[in-house]
Write a structure and sequence with these properties.
Elements: E1 2-11, E2 19-29, E3 34-39, H1 45-52, E4 60-65, E5 68-69, H2 75-85, E6 86-89, H3 101-111, H4 116-129, H5 145-158, E7 163-167, H6 175-192, E8 195-199, H7 203-206, E9 211-216, E10 219-224, H8 226-230, H9 233-238, H10 245-255, H11 267-278
Parallel strand pairs: 3-8, 3-9, 6-7, 7-8
Antiparallel strand pairs: 1-2, 1-4, 4-5, 9-10
Helix pairs in contact: 3-4, 3-5, 4-5, 5-6, 10-11
Adenosine-5'-diphosphate (ADP) binds near residues 11, 12, 41 and 46.
């Protein structure tokens, strides 16, 4: 679905403030995949996401979306492809404060020309899917952060995009809100086969992905399954990135000579590995 070859991006080119932010990015995302992009602050994640979402242009390289070269598009062409294929979720919840949950979800459908009854039917269906059926009539101010973010996701999904891109969607949430949102995203990916691109710097969230890309200094420094990536404990630490606590703990225990066969990614895996050792 997404094929990015050797992409470069410089902000303010040709001026003294020129900033070469993306330095040759290669990225492949298949239809239906759940991909996570990680990296320290300033490593270029949002810049890459904006290019991927046709919100910004790139200078060098190639980007194919659904087999189509995304380069030199007019404003209208870009907007059309974007609306057709991609849904965005950002840190802030992007909800209208004076509209209730179902109205918020239905609003983008109005702009798409969907009739009133169908709008509300689809909005209710998506809220139900997010586990928010009973919250349809509530205003954003009456909901928790996790609920608001799920309303925002419902609004995006109601537009039936092929791909949903989320730029640190849990950054403003408490741990239980984060958990709610991530579980929802994962379920959405598994049940409806929607392609998910999740930017996060919470490692515990990235372990849910099929594939993880790690960025540093405008490059992708490593990628692979969560297991392949997080086993590289030392490399990630050098890049100012943490690995999940469960992985770190077992990594250190192993260094102390404890016989741990594989490194866990989740607390549950960690517990079962340690139980085995303690027997
Ligand atoms: P991340 O999302 O990984 O934190 P960004 O892609 O937002 O990183 O930013 C990468 C670098 O580009 C940062 O140094 C940031 O200050 C700079 N940057 C981001 N957007 C712009 C812009 N519109 N103009 C100039 N510099 C920018
Ligand atoms: Mg960012």
């Amino acid at each position: 679905m997404v094929q990015i070859n050797n992409i470069h991006k410089t902000y303010n080119p040709g001026t003294e403030n020129a900033l070469h932010v993306l330095k040759g990015i290669d990225l492949t995302i298949n239809q239906g995949e759940f991909v996570s992009i990680m990296g320290a602050s300033g490593s270029g994640k949002s810049t890459l996401l904006n290019i991927l979402g046709i919100l910004d242009n790139y200078d060098e390289g190639e980007y194919f979306l659904d087999g189509r070269l995304i380069k030199n598009l007019t404003e209208t062409e870009g907007a059309r492809l974007r609306n057709e294929l991609i849904g965005f979720v950002f840190q802030s919840f992007n909800l209208l404060p004076f509209k209730n949950a179902v109205e918020n979800v239905a609003l983008p459908l109005y702009y798409k020309g969907v009739g009133r009854r169908e709008r509300y039917r689809r909005a209710m269906e998506e809220l139900e899917r997010m586990g928010l059926k009973d919250w349809a009539e509530h205003l954003p101010s009456e909901m928790s952060g996790g609920q608001k973010q799920r309303v925002a996701i419902a609004g995006v999904i109601a537009m039936q995009p092929d791909c949903i891109v989320l730029d640190e969607p849990t950054a403003m949430l408490d741990p239980s809100g984060r958990n709610e949102v991530i579980k929802t995203i994962k379920r959405l990916n598994k049940e409806s086969g929607i392609t998910v691109v999740l930017i996060t710097h919470f490692m515990e969230e990235a372990v849910n992905a099929d594939k993880v890309f790690v960025m540093d200094g405008g490059k992708i420094i490593t990628s692979g399954t969560p297991y392949e990536v997080f086993s590289q404990v030392e490399i990630l630490k050098k890049r100012r990135l943490n690995v999940p606590v469960a992985t770190q703990l077992c990594y250190k225990l192993r260094a102390c000579g404890v016989d741990i066969k594989s490194l866990p990614l989740t607390n549950e895996e960690c517990i079962s590995l340690l139980t085995e050792v303690l027997k």
